[in-house]
Amino acid sequence: MADKNQGGDKTEKPTRKRLRDARNKGDIAKSKDLSSAISMIAWLPRACHGEPFEATLATLGASAFGLVVLVAGLVLVPAAAAGLIAEFLQTGALITTEKMKPQLGNLDPVEGLKRMFNPDNLFELLKTLIKAALILTIIWVVLSGSIDEVRGDPPRRGVEHRGGSRPQDGGGGARSFALAHAAN
């Protein structure tokens, strides 16, 4: 009996019919990293040519509604559009439900664990963790000196406030202390 996962190199090239059938089923070679990279690059012009970062943070920290509108309108929409365009350029205009159909064979826990912990998936996990760490590091470097602006506080001049006596703190001295140290 033939093994389920007949891998290896094929000796013959696939026929046009097989390629067309695979495409109709949604089996298309494409890069997830390309779409992510294009989305991130689409965000860069706004980040580089927008208003000064501190002014943007003070404005956004003061208005939650403004934050939602700004993030959705200026960051997420162009990034999502760039991702959709990148997907379209890789696969063309293809809408199929074949990949969404439930398959009982996918419920086998042993096969699921084999798929989950195969070397390819572990490598993809490692790549994703490295990308996330890189993005979080960049965000931390950019935001670490701007905690007060994010909170909507005026910039500190010389003396740091470490207590909870300000009215907006509501007596939360520990929170103020933690935020003051997070900014340093």
TrEMBL record:
The keyword Membrane applies. GO terms for biological process: protein secretion. Residues 1-25, 152-175 are annotated as: Disordered. The chain crosses the membrane at residues 64-86, 129-147. The keyword Transmembrane helix applies. One of its GO terms (cellular component) is plasma membrane. Keywords: Membrane, Transmembrane, Transmembrane helix. InterPro entries: T3SS_substrate_exporter. Pfam families: Bac_export_2. Residues 1-14, 152-163 have a biased composition (Basic and acidic residues). PANTHER family: FLAGELLAR BIOSYNTHETIC PROTEIN FLHB. This is FlhB hrpN yscU spaS family domain-containing protein. It comes from Ditylenchus destructor.
